[in-house]
Amino acid sequence: MLFRGAAGMFAQDQQHELAALERQVFDFLGYQWAPILANFLHIIIVILGLFGTIQYRPRYIVVYAIWTAVWVTWNIFIICFYLEVGGLSKDSELLTFNISRHQSWWSENGPGCVRKEAPMSGIKGLDNHSYISVIGCALEYRYIEVMHSSFQILIALVGFVYACYVVSVFTEEEDSCLRK
């Protein structure tokens, strides 16, 4: 029983890790600094959860379970951000910490998107800049970001259930060893 729970948690954590790494890559491509930091912290906590599962350390798994609740909250915020719920605007520089004017990588490179650049000649100080227009996208980038976050929420919820199960099994195992 213990092995089955730990093996399930381990397999689920690996999937969680791959999904987080995939998301990290696209956030780096879009220079989305807040999500990059959140993803980095998420990857560290998932590794901690993996370590806790392998080494039978329930405290590490509890930290992972608590983090999944934070991670779900973060992804709900991202969904609200891209759907512009509650006064949030997907065009704001909130996710880049006002450091740059970058957006989601998907805004210019989504499925079916055709990117057209027009040089801005005649304006001093903008020698290497150009106006970029994107047309023909099969799916608007904000919906891709919402799908990414929804998938992260789904994985986090499954991870939370596994973490609770594994912690309860580990605790039961410890209690039965203490009684003997």
From TrEMBL:
Top-rank taxon: Eukaryota
Location in or out of the cell: Cell membrane
UniProt cross-references to Pfam families, sorted A to Z: NKAIN
Keywords: Cell membrane, Membrane, Transmembrane, Transmembrane helix
Signal peptide residues on this chain, from the entry's feature table: none
Any one GO BP annotation for this protein: regulation of sodium ion transport
Regions crossing the membrane: 33-54, 61-85, 151-170
Chief site of localization: membrane
InterPro entries registered for this protein in UniProt: Na/K-Atpase_Interacting
Bilayer topology term: Multi-pass membrane protein
GO terms under cellular component: plasma membrane
The UniProt record lists the keyword Acyltransferase: no
UniProt similarity note: Belongs to the NKAIN family.
Protein name, UniProt field: Sodium/potassium-transporting ATPase subunit beta-1-interacting protein
Taxonomic source organism: Geospiza fortis (Medium ground-finch)
Lineage: Eukaryota, Metazoa, Chordata, Craniata, Vertebrata
Gene name linked to the record: NKAIN4
